[in-house]
Amino acid sequence: MRPFDLAKALAGEPVITREGKQVTDIHHFKTVRREGNVIAVIDGDWFTFSPDGAYNKLHGNSNMDLFMAPVKRQEWRNIYKGKNSGKLTVSPARYASYEDAIAYEYEDMDQNNFDFIHPVKIHEWEE
Q: What whole-number distance in Å separates Cα of residue 40 and Cα of residue 109?
């Protein structure tokens, strides 16, 4: 699981609990001088947390502790066909999305020697 980052959470990146529940709203009360100065809404109820995302530091880990939600990543590459050889070739350039791959369809290969075929998703993972 990705460690909780208060700045990223306040900037709008998705947050979940240790057990995978989605946090729908989060606020940090900077002027409150106690540990529970972060409030998060989970399943319509609000709960207090420390700025590091811990639900209750006195009792150790909790299913309510906050984490940054996993981010899905993809790797795309463009497929080309050699104009003379007819052989298919995969571009060396890697793209984060289908749209990025399409946008650079001839940036990574010589269009005089290759015809663009289409992008293909090579790999997908969560961070």
A: 49
DSSP element (H, E) containing 121: strand 114-126
Residue in this structure with the two tokens 């306040």, named with its chain if needed: 10
For 4-19, give the DSSP string: P-HHHHHTT--EEETT
| 8: amino acid identity, one letter | K
Give CA torsion, residues 17, 19, 20, 26, to 10 deg: -10
Q: How far apart are CA 38 and CA 47, in angstroms?
A: 8
Q: If we measure between CA atoms, which residue out of 116, 106, 109, 112 comes closest to residue 80?
A: 116
41 strand-pairing partners: 25, 46
pLDDT tens across 5-51, in order? Answer: 999 999 999 999 999 999 999 999 999 888 889 999 999 999 999 99
H helices, E strands: number in the chain: 2, 9
Q: How many CB atoms lie within 10 A of CB 80?
A: 23
CA 41 – CA 75 distance, rounded (Å): 34
